[in-house]
What we know:
Structural class: alpha+beta
Strand order of the largest sheet: 7-6-5-2-4-3-1-8
Number of strands: 8
Shape: globular
Amino acid sequence: MMHPAYFETRFRVASLPSEWPARFAILSAWATTGQNWTFEANDAADRRLSARLAAAGLWHWRLTGYSPTTAHAEPSWACGLDWDEACDWGQAFRQDAIYYVSGDNLSVSHCDDRRRLLPVGRFRQRLDWDLTPFL
């Protein structure tokens, strides 16, 4: 069963890309749901994911997935991967699930053999522009 927190997640960006791809995945390399890693371990995993996306020449954009009820937040990457490939990357980075956007439709999927897209809502309705750097 998919953890309910995945269905309330919102996404914050410091800036917007000139345009979003028609389809893209949202990946995090931080601790899997239910696990606690040190900040150093989370940061190192995030840097590995960023480097691997860059080395593969994939479009990627920084965003942060967060819970509006608990304030838990994880730096993540929107990236130009198809859904099945994104699930493979999620498994490689020890993730329980990934998000996938097609058009404006946001879905979530486990990364393991339970893979299937579960509708979450409209991506743009869950996208917040973080004005903190400008304050």
